[in-house]
Each structure stands twice: as structure tokens, then as C-alpha cells.
């Protein structure tokens, strides 16, 4: 595995999402790419599916022309992989994972081909403006050469006219370890746009934890830990930060959101401690907050930044919409109908989801204003996933740009 004395701040750092239909081999592929299993929750192991966002990280090395994660040769890049659930009922969780990635690996099993969630996940990447996509044609060991070639052609046809049209398709057997080296090579060659390090920091929280074990001595207790991605700016140990929307409290018989303020105690990228962090890759921040505030991902979906520097939370949002031609994730074809006044939509904002009711629609049906059930911190120009309730399931129908 990776050498512990590496200064990862000197390496290119990126977040890579692993997406695709359930049981197409995403978690097994990740085990090959990192040496780690991301299905660590007992319910996930029991059911054999990813339920929450999983994380695994690796330093990729190059020795001669070969790439590896064993620590052989020269370190080339540091990658955090985000394993997103493929099950249709967990689309909101999948979208929260897409919100923090720089590029994506779309996994398609050669023995099953294009499935409803394959289509939905590709459109989810488009809704969050993820342009770098690598397509993995997995489980080639389970089909004949002729079937592999047929499936390859079907994938080429599937991505035609999409953001993945020019993406490389790599035939792989994650179970047998075939072509893993090629994936590592392509990851190290990805051109990820440089993020703004000079602006005010914006940290998107995807997970939150209480890392203390039962029975820990009070003098050794750790504060709440936030997991996510720094989208822009820089953070360092000792910085005073605020978390919005914060916690809900009752004041004068009304529910209001109260911003949380705390200090950064330590920061980690995987197993590496860092004093200062810039954009790219995942980041875990230990704070001085009471650990009970972070239990069971209770702070996931929130936004952190330097104290008094974040925008205000809002219960209203205005979007420029871009709707898909048809509803994805269904076995049959269904056209996306126009949006209507007073319609309720589910919005994926950063790593959170909220339900909004349409209050205004422009004459050309391209701009909408919504009142939100759960307040959010939104940023002008961000891409937000839009889902509609169809047959008691929230289905992604397009995306909107925050105005």
C-alpha cells in the first residue's frame, strides 16, 4: 500500500465518483483500485448493496509504464473515490455524491448492458455538470467475445449525443483484476480544471461522524468530524468556521435554523494528516463541536466556511431550468411534461435535498421560482438536480442553474 511518509500536498488531488446500476460491480472495482471495501455498514454487507456514500482513497504510483497502488515507483496522484448507491430508491444519496466529485467512472456490466439506472446516473452527472467521465465495461469474464463486442457497440450508441460521447470505454473484469492498470493510468492523466484557492472557502458536507468509541475517557474525547469536499478556497487548522443551515431550534414557538460555529482541530485526507487544505479530493475535518451533533450523518447536506463569510440561508430559490426529453430510470418511455404552478419538486442542492413548491414560472417556461421546505445555502451558477414524483418515486427530470 501507499508509503506513509508521502507529502500528498505535492500531488494532484481529485475526487472520483463511481456510479452505475445496482450489482454492476462498482464496489468490487473500487476494491481493486484502492485495496479497500467501501461497504462498511452492517446493513450494506447483509444486503450486498451500497446504501450510504462510501469512500476509499489511494495514492497511484508509476513504475516504468505500469501503474499501481502498492507504493512501487514514483507517486503520480492522490485519488479519493466516492462510491454512490445504484439502487433507484437511493437516487438522492447518489446525487449528493455527484455534488462533490471532479470526475466519474460509469460502470456498465457486459452481461446485463444498459439498465434504467445507467441512464439515470449518466443524466445525474450532466445535471451536476461533471464533464470528465470514464466508462468501464465490467464483467467481461462472464460473456463471450462476441457478446462483449455487441455490448461495446451498444454503449457507444447509448452515449452518442451525451456528455460522455467522447469518453473512453475500458473493457474490465474487476473480479479478475483485468485492465485495472489501464484505469489507474487514465485517472493520472485526467485534466481537472484548477479550482479557485484564493476565494472564501466553501466546504460541502457529505457525511458527519462521532468517532469516539463507547467508554472513551472524557479527557480523550474527540469533537464532531465533518466529511466532504472543499470546493474552493483554503482551510487550515485553527480556523474558526461556521456551518449552515445549522441546527433547528424552537424560538417563540417557531422553528428556526441556528448557525453552528466552531474551530478546526485537525484535518485528514484518508490516513494522511494535513495542516492546510485546498480544493480537490475529500477531506475530514475534526472540530470542537459536541460529538452528538454529528451522529448518523446529522450534519450531512450542510455547508461550512470561515465564520461570518458564508451567504445567508434561503427558503426561496430561482432557477433557469433545463429539462430532459424523457423521464429516466423507467422501463417504459415517458415524456417529461412541462412544469406547473404549485407543483412540488425535489431539488438536489450541494449534498442535500429539499422539496420546493413552484411559485412563479416565466412565460417561456425556462425560469422558475420555488419556496423551499428545508432552507439551503445556494451559490449563483451552481447546477441543481430537479426530480418529480412519478408513481411514488422521485425521478430526475432535469437540472437548473441558480440565478
Output the keywords.
403 residues; mainly beta; 40% strand; 6 helices; single chain; seven-stranded mixed β-sheet; six-stranded antiparallel beta barrel
Task: Describe it.
With 403 residues, the chain is mostly beta strands. 15% of the residues lie in helices and 40% in strands. The strands form four sheets. Strands 3-2-4-1-5-6-7 form a seven-stranded mixed β-sheet, with helices on both faces. β5, α4 and β6 form a beta-alpha-beta unit. The longest helix has 15 residues.
Task: Please describe the topology of this protein.
Blueprint: E1 13-20, H1 26-34, H2 42-47, E2 54-63, E3 66-68, E4 74-83, H3 91-98, E5 103-109, H4 116-127, E6 132-138, H5 145-159, E7 169-171, H6 180-189, E8 202-209, E9 225-232, E10 235-236, E11 240-251, E12 254-269, E13 272-274, E14 276-277, E15 282-287, E16 303-306, E17 314-323, E18 344-349, E19 352-361, E20 367-376, E21 383-390, E22 393-402
Parallel strand pairs: 1-4, 1-5, 5-6, 6-7
Antiparallel strand pairs: 2-3, 2-4, 8-9, 8-16, 9-15, 10-14, 11-12, 11-16, 12-13, 12-15, 17-20, 17-22, 18-19, 18-21, 19-20, 21-22
Shape: globular
Instruction: Assign the structural class, choosing from mainly alpha, mainly beta, alpha/beta, alpha+beta, or little secondary structure.
Output: mainly beta
Main sheet? 7 strands, mixed
Number of helices: 6
Contiguous uncertain segments of 5+ residues: 39-51, 86-90
Spatially, the strands of the biggest sheet line up as 3-2-4-1-5-6-7
Distance between the termini: 46 Å
> If you compute it from the alpha carbons, what radius of gyration comes out, rounded to the nearest whole angstrom?
21 Å
Helix content: 10-25%
Order of helices and strands: EHHEEEHEHEHEHEEEEEEEEEEEEEEE
Number of strands: 22
For the residues shown, what is the average pLDDT?
A: 85
Our estimate of the beta-strand percent is 35-45%
